[in-house]
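re the bet — no i am not wrong, look at it urself. input seq straight from the record:
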Amino acid sequence: MSNPDVTWLIGGPQGSGINVSAESLAKAIVRGGLRVFSNIEYHSNIMGEHSYYRVRISEQDRHSILDRVNLVVALDEETLVGEPHVEFTGHHGHLGELVPGGAAIYDAAIKLDPAKVGRDDIHLYPVPYSDLLRQTLREFDRESQLSRLRVMANTIAVGASLAVLDYDLKYFCDVLRESFTGRRGEVGEMNVRAATLGFEYVRQHYGDGFAYKVHAKPNQNGHHPRPMLIRGMHACGAAKIKAGLGIQTYYPISPATDESVYLESQQRNYDFAVVQTEDEIAAINMAVGAAHAGVRAATSTSGPGVSLMVEGIGFASMTEAPGPVLFFWQRGGPSTGLPTRQEQADLRFAMQLAHGESPHIVVAPGDPQEIFEDSFESFNWADRYQMPVIVMLDKYLSTAHWTIDELKMDGLKIDRGILWHQNGDGDRYLRYAFTENGISPRAVPGQEGGIFWSTTDEHDPRGHITEDATNRIRMMEKRMKKLEVAGQEIPQARKLHLYGPADADVTVIGWGSTKGSILDALDELNGQGGLRWNYLQVRLLRPFPAEEISTILRNAKKTVIVENNYTCQLGGMIREMTGISIDHEVPKFEGRPFSQEELVEALTKVVTTGEKRVFVSHLSA
């Protein structure tokens, strides 16, 4: 890479606080005018297994992780050298991921076996975590609380790493102080002291031989507010609030729970309710009922939860409810599969979500800005077309942190769709009246004259159950017509986007969270080998924009599909809907997202060898 970034990685046992340490460091880096992209990998058990957090530091906006690591911060020996038996389980340790000249900071109590390290081109910086922690607590007369405050060793390790990077410690200290306010102020000062002792220890005991420095950069965008670190689940929650959410229902399931918990923390500040139900069946039916009652309703879950919701989705489609919006946070499957890992394997499931043929919209944003826009618009689509909307998200989008200047809200306006108004005495309301575009004006509960029947059986325009064949034909055409109208009315900018020159030599196709890795990889590839690359992002998946995709792909010279699933499901859908077969496939299905380097490697292999299918895996922990 012409302008190398720095990757900082912290690892330790699950439950040891690596997420707080990494996110505090990321905030400190952003305050210094730099940009960050970060992501955590963790096991589905509660405590003990190895977890790690990568923070990519750059002067430019980045959208993906890097495999190569410049600095490892270890809270245990396993982070360094892995487990002794890794043929089928465990991991090899992160020392092997260090670039030449990279470094590892670890507890001096760990006596590394040189045979285990196997590297003479890296720096090893043991730091006496326990001694420095005791010194900190002694200064605050808290030494008797050593066991309770042992987690502060993480702060020592982060402070030591900032000395290695030559980064100004004051940014990190400011973050610590702001994290501990009020009666917890003294704890904040203890953490500041612990970080300072770690920082000073490295400065005093190790030379300046580390080549990868990180220095603060003056803010060149004075017209922007302070950049923010945002996760996809934050962007999703903010969009719901902006769109006028009335109720969110959920049953806890990873990785969807974080978003509902975030909304729970906000419901006192805004006029909506978050309800944890007894199961996913109750969650979807409560949301459908709320949509019928006239409020904007959402539910949030993952694959196993959606499996329980399919009848409720059909209920919403048949009764032409204005929603709900279902936020589908994908994870590794099938069954419970990989509960805390990354996958995009639920696309086909989402496209045919209920039994029978029923209308619903499916959209797949690829970054926080798109998550905000698509989540907001999904409520408008639910109201306008009176059908459920599915927003496809995943574990990577939920847990990754982006640096952004702001969430843009230009052009986002609330649209509640066509509402019924009584025209005069004797006007009898038909909730399911046949119309040219299939959309019947809906009444708001309590509206005079707006009483109607609603049933999940086939029904006539008044809502009464009937199995008449002529009525069945008209009602099916009415419901499916709404999906056709949505496909005509939703603007192309929300359907797909082509990045790069239209006449590129290679067209890469993807959807959802692969966007960031593809963009970063193509930034690198477009400067190599004389080939020009572009990227077709498919964002609206139902109704499928077959005509628009066909127009682009018929002119493509060579095509490659990149997906986090085994069968490359979008590639199959493109072939089914357009008759166009994608030339090459790059799948990854091990439960981790694409890194920039491995995608560059795979795409390079595709064009140099012509292989049809290039499987990606770097066998990370």
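see?? The domain at 229-404 is CATH 3.40.50.970 (Rossmann fold). told u. also The mean pLDDT is 94. so pay up
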